[in-house]
Amino acid sequence: MRKVITYGSFDLFHEGHYRLLKRAKALGDYLIVGVTTDHYDEERGKLNVVNSLMERIDNVKKTGFADKIIIEDHVGQKVEDIQKYQVDVFTVGSDWTGKFDYLSEYCEVVYLERTKGISSTMRRNQNYELVKLGVIGTGRIAGRFVKESVFVSGINVEGVYNPHENSAARFQQEYELGFHVSALEDLWPRVNAVYIASPHQTHYTYAREALEHECNVLCEKPMALKKQEAAELYDLAEKKGCILMEAIKTAYAPGFVRLLSMAKSGVIGRIYDVESCFTRLTSSNLRELTDKEYGGSFTEFGSYTLLPIIKILGANCDEVRFESFLADNGLDIYTKAYFRYPNALATAKTGLRVKSEGELIISGTQGYIKVKAPWWKTTSFEVCREDINENEQVYTKFAGDGLRYEIRDFVAAINHYHEDGAFKLTRDESIALADFMERFLKSREEKL
Q: Which helix (H) or strand (E) holds 131?
């Protein structure tokens, strides 16, 4: 019996998939089809899979060509499967020509010509709305966002807005965008979504105006500096039928999502303490240390350090207290926030002129989880026990600058790929972040 094996996501199953499986079956007597998991797709950079794993398996099964369906979930599995199942032929589409020649050591490798004019990307664009996005702001993070957006299908950065036309024009030229505008009324007719990367104090105003124009919003942190403003934005988004997301890249990163799942599953027992830290030695001429009203370490990094605390312990604490060292201009160069919950404690440290270990530690009754610096990327973490021989190291993926994950979820939310995507940063959690920002700014003002 001549065995054939092939692999794929088989997302948005189409005629091209059907024809490939039919031709793969014709290469032998027994066809094994490997379907990739969502997690493995993420790890290899495929960030916008629409159908669930079970739906994709079912679509392959319905063709009748697969004699056996297996799950592909890690790098190197193809070599293992070929040997395990004593495969004679490995085959994939011709767009992978040369990529899998190394498998010829184990079996025959055949590249099948793809069906021209048909692809999952084309079906995605036909069946779902293309996100035509405008960037509001031309700072450092805006440039990184444009670069990261190319890794996500279904979105195109069309142009940029900045009230200073020269800045907008430079940004357009540098990132080869279609247009630049210096008046907001010229932006709304050309886009259906915006990414807000302007100074902190302008986020609420820009987000509100975008939603009023029925434009989906992905807004950099902090989305709002007052609890009431954040609540108003979410109410308006619901009224207008728009997506509103706060862009804290860590919240959407695969490693952080996995970390939270493990922590809340009880692997370290009952959690009593969360400690997070984010510091950076910053040049004194940057906005973070010159904006006397909205600059400082906590407004800059507090959204990150608050995130694991709120996700693990909840949005409602009994008490919060801020201790800061202030520069001559009144901005905090180092802040330590203390939180007391009914049955837990937490600490969040941020700094701009003070350096500390940027780690995250979650303490429980059966051990603790330690994420080394920079924890906000969560490329790995360790589950630590009383007996160090029982410690477990977990490694995860964090591609590029990490912004591609929030972009992926933003596009998915607009097109309703995944109805439950909002769990990564909920409305209540985002409003809680604004509440803590408001409390901090009030506390800092009182100390002046």
A: strand 131-136
Q: What is the pTM of this model?
A: 0.81
Average pLDDT (374-400) is 95
For 390, counting Cβ atoms within 10 Å of its Cβ (0-12 exposed, 13-18 middle, 19+ buried), the class is exposed
Q: Mark residue 212 as left, alpha or beta (left: phi above 0; alpha: psi -120 to 50; beta: remaining).
A: alpha
CA dihedral of residues 215, 146, 377, 248 (deg, nearest 10):
-20
Q: Report the alpha-carbon distance of residue 32 to residue 5 in Å, rounded.
A: 5
Cβ atoms of 222 and 440 closer than 8 Å? no
Does residue 11 carry a pLDDT above 60? Answer: yes
Instruction: Compute the Cα dihedral for 353, 357, 362, 365 and give only its sign.
Output: negative
Q: Is the model's pLDDT at 420 over the cut of 80?
A: no
Q: Please give the full DSSP string across 199-229, using - where no structure is assigned.
A: -GGGHHHHHHHHHHTT-EEEEESPS-SSHHH
* Per-residue pLDDT tens digits for 285-311: 888 999 989 999 999 999 999 999 999
Q: Residue 96: CB partners within 8 Å, gap ≥ 6?
A: 111
Cα–Cα separations (whole angstroms), residue 161 to 174, 279, 286, 294: 14, 30, 21, 22
DSSP 322-351: EEEEE-TTS-EEEEEEEEEETTEEEEEEEE
User: pLDDT per residue over 126-163, tens digit each?
Assistant: 556 789 999 999 999 999 999 999 888 789 999 999 99
Please give the helix or strand (H or E) that residue 300 lies within, else none: helix 297-313
How far apart CA 343 and CA 345 sit, in angstroms, is: 7
Query: Which is nearest to 3 in space by CA: 110, 136, 161?
Result: 110
Structure tokens at 150: 């190319």
Among 344, 393, 379, residue whose Cα is nearest residue 364? 344
- As a whole number, mean pLDDT of residues 13-30 equals 94
